[in-house]
Amino acid sequence: IKTNGLQSIKAAQDGKTLNDLKVNLLGKKGSITKALHGISELPVEERPKIGSLANKLRDELAKTIDSKRAELDQAALNQKLKDEKIDVTLPGDSVPKGHPHVIQQIIDEIDDIFIGMGYQVLSGPEVEEEVYNFEMMNLPKNHPARDMQDTFYITKDILMRTHTSPMQARALQKHDFTKGPLKMVSPGVVYRRDTDDPTHSHQFHQVEGIVIDKHITMADLKGTLEVMTHKLFGDKFQVRLRPSYFPFTEPSVEADITCFNCNGKGCDVCKGTGWIEVLGAGMVHPNVLKMAGVDSNVYGGFAFGVGPDRFAMLKYGVDDIRDFYLNDLRFLSQFD
Ligand code: FA5
Questions:
Q1: Four-point Cα dihedral 77, 78, 83, 84, nearest 10
Q2: Which protein residue's CA is at the shortest distance from atom 32 of ligand 1?
Q3: Distance spanning both ends of the chain, measured CA to CA
Q4: Residue 137 Cα, ligand 1 centroid: separation in angstroms?
Q5: Which residues bind Mg(2+) (predicted)?
Q6: How far is the CA of 141 from the centre of ligand 1 (A)?
Q7: Ligand 1 neighbourhood includes 161 CB (under 6 angstroms)
């Protein structure tokens, strides 16, 4: 029993074989149990000796089975660890990474430039009251200049804002001038019933800016626009102010910057002028201040409205504004 038993245990390659051996050797009907039962048939004087031998053998076999089991378990664990080892040198699966939309990138840049000059950034409602969009901007009902911004109406008094200028009125109403000047930029989406073409979209972005304090001049406006242009595009680009008309500013200007394509020399893009129009601006009309409850005899300042979509077109040489809104990832992922 001993020789066979020990040999078989040592040769076992798995837990099941070991279990079977344990049953066959030590179980109720196993060889050792049988041997112990057979002791009663032996002469009395031999029984203690054989009994003790059988017990010893039973213990030895049980111990050997236990240590063999531990050995098999350890081997299985080692194999598992080996199989599950992670090869850190294998190249990983690349996870597609998103990024802000190119227009949002330009807006973030503009926000950062103005935050650096002490402006606060406010956002306002895209579904706006007609009063803020027009009346408070010195555009009373039936004013012909309302036609400049063809409008999507929701109800008689509620509309999709046609520009970010209503944020001038909202900021003026809220601001406490005893605490210092108002310096604010407000980016956002605006809507007009424009027919879509390469340079016009019915939905586009603007960044409004307003500075109101005592003794603010046109020179401050020009300097501010120059800082923005230089920081966005580089120092060599110049800003030119041209007289224009907006009901909410007096005087009003449009700002041109040196045309990128031809470096100010004149090309098709700038229609031979060397300049490209990028924004509207001016000195805030006293009526706008008065309607928002600000004393126009004491306070004054400038405002501007920038079109970041056009900035993005210029900066990246995109010749159709609609590309920004089609959500074609092949186009958008270029601006990572
Ligand atoms: C305005 O909307 C004025 N509220 C700007 C302003 C603010 C003037 C403060 C004075 C003081 P305008 O309609 O020109 O102005 O639009 C301003 C800029 O928005 C334009 O220079 C242009 O860059 C952009 N823009 C206008 N219409 C469109 C359009 N359909 N698609 C894309 N960009 C447009």
A1: 70
A2: 200
A3: 78
A4: 14
A5: 250
A6: 20
A7: no
